Amino acid sequence: MTSKAPRVRPDADSIEIRHCETLAEFEKCVQLERTIWGEELTVPAAVLVVEQHTGGHILGAFDRGELVGFTLALAAHRAGQPFLHSHMTGVLENYQNNGIGRKLKLFQREAALKQNITLIEWTFDPLELRNAHFNLVRLGAIARRFIPNCYGITESKLDAGLPTDRLVAEWWLDSPRVKNILVGRASSAAENHRTLSLPASLAKIKFGDPAEAKGIQSKARGEFQQLFREGYVATGIEPRGNAMDYILQPAASIAGLALPEYPPNEFGH
Fold first, then answer.
1. Rounded to a whole number, what is the largest CA-CA distance in the chain?
2. What is the pLDDT of residues 237-255, one digit of tens each?
3. Prediction pTM value
């Protein structure tokens, strides 16, 4: 049995966020991917080279020259408009809870805005409640699309053998919602909001009782799909007793946020 590496508390000025640009740095990203997600989900260095030359972003978090986190975003277009699809963001376990993930995303936001890109999307597991809080509450992303079993059943320990259901985060970079949240001015939910409740102990259930976790996942899948079809948008998540409640609001109630139309098949099946 191996022991976990001790937590690192880096100095505030020791973490540098910047673009990765050399093949050697891309190879370091690949090593970090293997450590965090395992071989099955690892994107090879050759793809990172292609993304660098086609408008994607490969950003690294360095502690005194050592890569401790990275994010990969792919260049994308929809209806003639450019956006970024942020495929993966990860931080080494012993560097987590130091705000490095947020620093990576904020650098990603600034880099995108310099390119006149105002939307970054990514997928996330709705059962990963801490990640949902980070995406919706800390960054100000929203979610209104659901992809059942997005990547198929994987061998990744993070998926615990469950179908890879994913919400699609939409981060509208220069929207009033995002700007307000990033400076600490979060808005309250509309009076006609809806909630979708999951057990606060879901992480323990996911890895300790696969059958129960699969039942919770199946129920949540149906509820998300129904609420999205009714025009609701996931905007937050908050604790309530032994539960964590996703907060969903009508799209029209989100001040200053003009959302494009999506075809019905974008909302899950």
1. 53
2. 999 999 999 999 998 887 6
3. 0.90
